[in-house]
Design brief:
By secondary structure, the protein is mainly β. It contains no helices and 11 strands. It has one domain: TolB, C-terminal domain (Neuraminidase, 6 Propeller).
Length: 131
């Protein structure tokens, strides 16, 4: 199930069931615009929070092997950047590029796919992620 950039809440378990990503505390960046909120990744067995990121976009996607989570993050000038959180290290890295509104669809074999600006002049996103 795809998560829209306009969603105000989303919760998805990793494919292996070990982690849960929760997006909440969202608000529109402008009237009728996509949302900005907090994304938290929790290890289900221990209940420990691996990472918590503010200014996150709503559309996130797990890697097929549960090793990472890709998500957009809003910048101060209302653009988005792409971040990959690695579950084993609890660290995140920025992927080069700047986007308008990211809607992610898949993250398999190190390839992140989605659409930049799904409503106005959509452009495909395909990024090979090296972690």
């Amino acid at each position: 199930m795809r998560i829209s950039a306009w969603d105000s809440f989303a919760r998805r378990d990793s494919p292996d069931g070990a982690f849960t990503a929760i997006y909440d505390r969202a608000m529109e960046i402008a009237m009728g615009g996509p949302t900005r909120g907090v994304l938290k990744v929790v290890e289900k067995k221990s209940g420990d929070t691996l990472i918590e990121l503010s200014d996150a976009g709503a559309s996130f996607v797990w890697a097929g092997d549960s090793s990472a989570l890709a998500l957009p993050r809003w910048t101060q000038d209302r653009k988005q950047e792409l971040i990959v959180v690695t579950t084993s290290t609890r660290r995140h890295q920025f992927i080069a590029g700047e986007f308008r509104v990211i809607e992610l669809t898949s993250f398999d074999d190190g390839v992140i796919e989605g659409v930049d600006s799904p409503v106005h002049r959509p452009a495909p996103i395909r990024i090979v992620c090296k972690r």
